[in-house]
Amino acid sequence: MPYKLVPKIRNEDVDAFLNGWEDNRVRGLIFEPRQNMRLRYLVTAYHFRHRVAFGFVDSEEIRQKYQVPQDMDTVLLFNENISSPMASLSMKDIPTSTLHHIVSSNQYLALPRLSSQEVLEALCPCEWNKPRKRLCVVLVTKTSSNHDLHRQSFRIYAQNSPYSVEKVRFAYIYHDKQTEFVNSLIPEGEFVEPLLRVVILWRRDTSHVKYEWISDKWEWENNLNQTTQKLDSTISRLLRSSEALTYEASVNDLFDEHAKGIFGRIATKVGTFMESVYDGLSKDQILPALSIIGTIVFILAVGYFMAYLVRLEEENIQQQKAKAKSGNNNNDSSNSSYQPELRLHELRGEKYNGLVRLLKPGCRTILLVLDMQSRQQLIPPFHKAVWPYRKNKTLMFSYMYIERGLSWYKELLQLSLPEERELNINPRNCVGTVLSLNGHRKYFCMFHAKHTERFSKKKRVKLTKPFEEKDCESGTFIGFDSDSSESEEEILLQENLLDGLPNWLDRLFEGTTQRYHINYWPDFPNK
To answer: What is the domain partition of the chain in residue ranges?
Structure first.
């Protein structure tokens, strides 16, 4: 049996228990002249658990309130009216058959809710024969306290109805929970607002119903007499075997509003198991169980602490090995000095603000321009040239692929020229350029191997034409207005492009290099 299937009811709990009929179940009180409930009542409560909620009374005040005999077994059944029971049974020894009969005859409220297909089958059984048809009069409401008065007035009408329950049953339904069922009763091509309307059903079989709507809404305060008269006349007319209901529809089974999901069922079973274990354990059983649990927890804690100590010892040994290894590699000093890392960042769209635009005052970015073919030859000499400046916290070092940043580079050079003109830039002639970018003060300095003031004659190969000095500010030394990857005057090998970079860096930090000022930093392409 489910744990706490029949709870004990005391004087302070009886009202809350009897008023719980909102779950669409009748309430039953069991009185016995003994402390423990008989098994027959427990079995009956389990059998009718979906329709009736039973409670075992353990209070003399409740017994006196309902005038229950002291020496007899008594069962009281309550519907929505909790002031007096709708059925009662008192005997010295109630037979099981008699108990089942009285409960099965009173297992529905005065105005039950169509909350599942099982309730619909019990209240509105299928009947295909017209003379024996059974009507089900249903008020459509929603799950809201605003409709409580409408349901209450409809309940009073159902209790005072002259029709027998074998022919006519009254009920209500929640539209917001049984939407599919209610919407299937709306005639095709017609607009019917189902809320607070009464529909009369005749179930011919499990999936086909005939129905008819009452035109007026069920208002508990306005025109109630007129609506009840119209409903009485409609029911009387439809009970005649010669009369037929207006509409017919195919309907699906009702949604079970009381069904629990898989997680709800698991939680219920776990809670029931824990409560049963808690109530079943005595003090003599709890102390050994706590002792066993405490021992297990202590063993796990000690094991975790020992593993933690072993891990600390291993880390200490590894650190000592690392120190010994570094001491062997450095014979000049016993304590090796910390060497800061030199990181080269690739200039991309997502890093552009951090490397250029949002640089703090006094900070600069040293940028190497290269392409995919020259990466392996230019990165090592560039790294070697800037290595002495790795400890300078005002410097960042990066590189840019000319294939990705050509448009940005072209616009940057145009902003630095004194007059506006269209530049024809050969990307190959830009390889090996080094820029010093001052993001805050908006200027840059440029290094290029063909700049006349920084050119090393050892690495040049003379051609027939003599070298002509070019104005560095005009930008011709980096290949503007040139379509060939080699200048007409000289050939410069790719591995020698950065030979003069260390000297240029010295002049850069002395402040003697040429500065090209611009009004703004152009946007970097995001591709």
So the answer is: 8-105, 117-250, 264-313, 344-517
- Summarize pLDDT for 390-420 with one digit per residue, the tens: 888 899 999 999 999 999 999 999 998 887 7
C-alpha 369/C-alpha 223 separation (Å) is: 90
C-alpha closest to that of 401 among 436, 363, 425, 375? 375
DSSP 295: H
Model pTM score: 0.53
Q: Which of 135, 208, 200, 137 is nearest to 166 (CA)?
A: 135
Q: Do domains 8-105 and 117-250 have the same CATH topology?
A: yes
Upper half-sphere CA count for residue 31 (Cβ side, 13 Å): 24
Tokens 């063909």 -> residue:
450
Give pLDDT tens digits for 124-170. 999 888 888 899 999 999 998 899 999 999 999 999 988 888 899 99
Fold for the domain defined by 8-105: Glutaredoxin (3.40.30)
Q: What is the pLDDT of residues 259-270, one digit of tens each?
A: 877 887 788 788
Q: How many CB atoms lie within 10 A of CB 129?
A: 8
- Report, as an integer, the average pLDDT of 498-525: 92
What's the CATH fold of domain 344-517?
Glutaredoxin (3.40.30)
158, 155, 162, 246: which is closest to 202 by C-alpha? 246
| Length reported for the chain | 527
- Structure-token pair, residue 447: 């290094």
**Unique residue bearing structure tokens 């500065």:** 515
Print the SS3 string covering 490-503: EECCHHHCCCCHHH
C-alpha to C-alpha distance for 214 and 237, rounded to whole angstroms: 13
* CATH 3.40.50.300 describes domain 117-250: no
